């Protein structure tokens, strides 16, 4: 009797298949529709090629386009291979290196042959056309296992120096797999892949840009060209993505920051922001809003030093775990002579603070604390510095100097769940005031961490219970647990905001920490008269003022809510006869707390309307001789087609109501 494999399916049924069968055979046995729709398979949880034979009895889940995460990973991987094949087809002698899938597409690093210049944007249309030809050919994608020696010999014979170098460094005894595209092109790859190039939609990808790259990311190595593309399951998804990119470009906070005269960055202060008066007005409004929120929630604001001794950072654990991201400073007077080193070899070291936590512990340690003093909530608009690589900096979103809305809650064990619940409710109110929806995630213990497993079990459970008590551990709030994503000293809750075009931003956090109080010897006197360690809750809602302002600008496309807008209204004249009335209107609006500027220039009103709309001024109050005679204003609101004429007093009342911060309404 022929031996049969038992293949368990997700519905609980079991298929008996001959030895040598593949997931494709199972799909075909179920029906032609599934056989056509299947893209790959999960065999005992591992994503595999559809045509790869089973190793034995297995659990099988067939992957189709409905399994979007897996399907997108597969098609993007395949688009990358088709890109490399297309380039080598068009320009023989091109060397290929690596081509992974990315969050929204793929790229491949290649080196152009000596006969031509490096690839450029001008080459992309021809490459796209060749990629579509390869897709239309419906070439089978076939997996083979090769020996290291045979693979290295193949790459060397074809002049693929980069591939040969990489193959030489792979572990001895490891199966090296290649994938053939038809019978005429192969690449070294672990897979998996789709059954054939024809499974790709030729209208669902687009090559986006080229950039320089170095072999293996090392600037001392050969320079390559990285060709980026975006790839999707169908043309509709591609079009939606391109529309999102178009919207994101319009909303780019760096572009809008220039147009609205909010801030600038320059090389003299890499990663630090020069705030202009209008941009700093937004900052001040956010700061005032947050102060009202934290005052009402029982926090006490503090201010701590920028520079602290390295020994403090050693004791906290940051010197060993985080030093590469810290700016360190010698604690001595620098040499002022022309000769000799600037700093001696025996200088003591200090560091600009990359976070506020240790300084807040030092405040807590001043004086004896009783269990009755807890919870103690310490807040700081704390300026921090982190030594981010120049290439990683990005406008306001990733900087070297930033200010956190940072707070630490020192509490007893029995207070943790309630304090975290209160924070969840505070964060909810604040994010809703700014018009955001969000999801809540729990980041669990990483592999490298401080503290015992028992402490981590307890800390993770406390955060879970707090979110449940706040009613947020639900699908509505996008509740999810993220294994391995916690900090080295504590698990954390994360708030992921969704903006107006569907992007997510991880902003707020709260972390339950038992490690730092122990390392820095924080204690309180308990009801039993003995010393106890407090638990330290690290928390922030904006994350950093810089990044939150960048997110707000992009979320609102520069059209900030009136209470945040740096200039809330401009009074513009039609004729010079109305100048005196315009100045009076400006004075009354400013007296009512509306940030207003006059525009009395001798320009046509349509020109003024365009200019102030471009600068995202929320309201333009137009006045001419008629308005001056009648004591009215014609209000043009940004984004609205129709203007409305109101008596000045009524217009002031309307704007005052709209300009009131949401927490004061």
What's this, in brief?
The protein is of the alpha+beta class and 665 residues long.
- Main sheet: strands, sense, barrel: 8 strands, mixed
Helix proportion range = 25-40%
Strand order of the largest sheet: 15-19-20-27-24-23-21-22
Mean pLDDT over the full residue set: 93
Regions with little confidence, pLDDT below 50 for 5+ residues: none
Helical region count? 20
Note the gap between the termini. 81 Å
Q: How many individual β-strands?
A: 32
Description:
The protein has 665 residues and is of the alpha+beta class. 34% of the residues lie in helices and 25% in strands. It is built from 20 helices and 32 strands. The strands form eight sheets. Strands 15-19-20-27-24-23-21-22 form an eight-stranded mixed sheet, with helices on both faces. A hairpin with a 5-residue loop joins β1 and β2. α3 packs across α4. The chain starts with a strand and ends in a 6-residue tail after the last helix. The mean pLDDT is 93.
């Amino acid at each position: 009797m022929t031996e049969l494999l038992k293949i368990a399916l997700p519905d609980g049924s079991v298929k008996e298949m001959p030895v040598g069968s593949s997931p494709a055979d199972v799909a075909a046995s179920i029906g032609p529709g599934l056989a056509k729709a299947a893209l790959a398979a999960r065999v005992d949880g591992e994503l595999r090629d559809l045509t790869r034979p089973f190793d034995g009895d297995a659990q099988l889940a067939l992957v189709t386009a409905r399994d979007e995460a897996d399907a997108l990973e597969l098609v993007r991987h395949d688009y990358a291979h088709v890109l490399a094949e297309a380039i080598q087809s068009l320009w023989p002698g091109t060397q290929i290196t690596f081509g992974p899938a990315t969050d929204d597409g793929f790229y491949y690093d290649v080196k152009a042959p000596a006969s031509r210049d490096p690839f450029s944007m001008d080459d992309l249309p021809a490459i796209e056309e060749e990629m579509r030809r390869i897709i239309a050919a419906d070439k089978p994608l076939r997996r083979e296992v090769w020996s290291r020696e045979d693979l290295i010999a193949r790459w060397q014979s074809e002049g693929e120096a980069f591939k040969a170098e990489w193959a030489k460094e792979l572990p001895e005894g490891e199966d090296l797999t290649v994938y053939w595209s038809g019978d005429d092109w192969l690449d070294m790859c672990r897979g998996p892949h789709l059954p054939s190039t024809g499974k790709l939609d030729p209208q669902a990808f687009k090559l986006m840009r080229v950039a320089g790259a170095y072999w293996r990311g090392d600037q001392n190595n050969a320079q390559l060209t990285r060709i980026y593309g975006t790839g999707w399951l169908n043309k509709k998804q591609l079009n939606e993505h391109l529309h999102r990119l178009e919207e994101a470009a319009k909303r780019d906070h760096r572009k809008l920051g220039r147009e609205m005269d909010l801030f600038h960055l320059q090389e003299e202060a890499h990663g630090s922001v020069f705030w202009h008066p209008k941009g700093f007005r937004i900052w001040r409004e956010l700061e005032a809003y947050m102060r009202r929120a934290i005052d009402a929630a029982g926090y006490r604001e503090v201010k701590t030093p920028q520079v602290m001794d390295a020994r403090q950072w050693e004791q906290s654990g940051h010197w060993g775990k985080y030093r590469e991201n810290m700016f360190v400073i010698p604690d001595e007077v620098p040499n002022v002579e022309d000769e000799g080193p600037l700093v001696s070899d025996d200088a003591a070291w200090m560091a600009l603070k990359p976070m506020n936590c240790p300084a807040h512990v030092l405040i807590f340690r001043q004086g004896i604390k009783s269990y009755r003093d807890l919870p103690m909530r310490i807040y700081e608009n704390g300026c921090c510095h982190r030594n981010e690589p120049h290439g990683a900096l990005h406008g306001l979103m990733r900087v070297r100097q930033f200010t956190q809305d940072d707070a630490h809650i020192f509490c007893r064990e029995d207070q943790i769940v309630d304090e975290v619940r209160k924070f969840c409710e505070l964060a909810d109110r604040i994010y809703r005031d700014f018009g955001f929806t969000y999801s809540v995630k729990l980041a669990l213990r990483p592999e490298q961490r401080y503290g015992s497993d028992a402490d981590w079990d307890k800390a993770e459970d406390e955060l879970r219970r707090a979110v449940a008590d706040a009613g947020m551990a639900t699908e509505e709030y996008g509740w999810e647990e993220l294994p391995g994503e916690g900090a080295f000293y504590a698990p954390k809750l994360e708030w992921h905001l969704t903006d107006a075009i569907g992007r997510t931003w991880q902003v707020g956090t709260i972390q339950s920490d038992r490690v730092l109080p122990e390392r820095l010897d924080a204690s309180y006197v308990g009801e039993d008269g003995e010393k106890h360690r407090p638990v330290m809750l690290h928390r922030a809602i904006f994350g950093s003022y810089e990044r939150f302002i960048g997110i707000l600008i992009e979320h609102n496309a520069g059209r900030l809510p009136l209470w945040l807008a740096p200039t809330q209204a401009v009074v513009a004249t039609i004729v010079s006869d109305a100048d005196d009335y315009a100045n009076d209107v400006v004075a009354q609006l400013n007296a009512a707390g509306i940030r207003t500027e006059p525009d009395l220039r001798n320009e046509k009103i349509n020109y003024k309307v365009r200019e102030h709309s471009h600068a995202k001024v929320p309201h333009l109050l137009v006045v001419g001789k008629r308005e001056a005679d009648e004591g009215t204003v014609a209000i043009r609101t940004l984004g609205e087609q129709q203007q409305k004429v109101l008596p000045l007093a009524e217009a002031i009342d309307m704007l005052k109501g709209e300009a009131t911060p949401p927490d004061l309404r």
